[in-house]
Task: inverse folding
């Protein structure tokens, strides 16, 4: 079960928010026992890129042996 402060992986592109599938976010609020989540996505320098409300099908937990990848965001 995904809980507050867990890292999650975005499973779909959200071009209107500048986010791509694979981006890593932090859950800041869990809605209705995991039906949805408020997630903060931040740049590596700590600046918040977006805070979005997502339904459970749009995110997943971090899997074993995954590696992070850096990319530039518009801003």
Result:
């Amino acid at each position: 079960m995904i809980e507050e402060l867990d890292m999650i992986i975005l499973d779909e592109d959200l071009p209107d928010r500048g986010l791509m599938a694979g981006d890593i976010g932090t859950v800041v609020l869990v809605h209705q026992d995991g039906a949805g989540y408020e997630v903060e996505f931040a740049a590596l320098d700590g600046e918040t890129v977006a805070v979005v409300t997502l339904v459970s099908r749009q995110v997943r937990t971090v899997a074993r042996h995954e590696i992070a990848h850096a990319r530039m965001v518009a801003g």
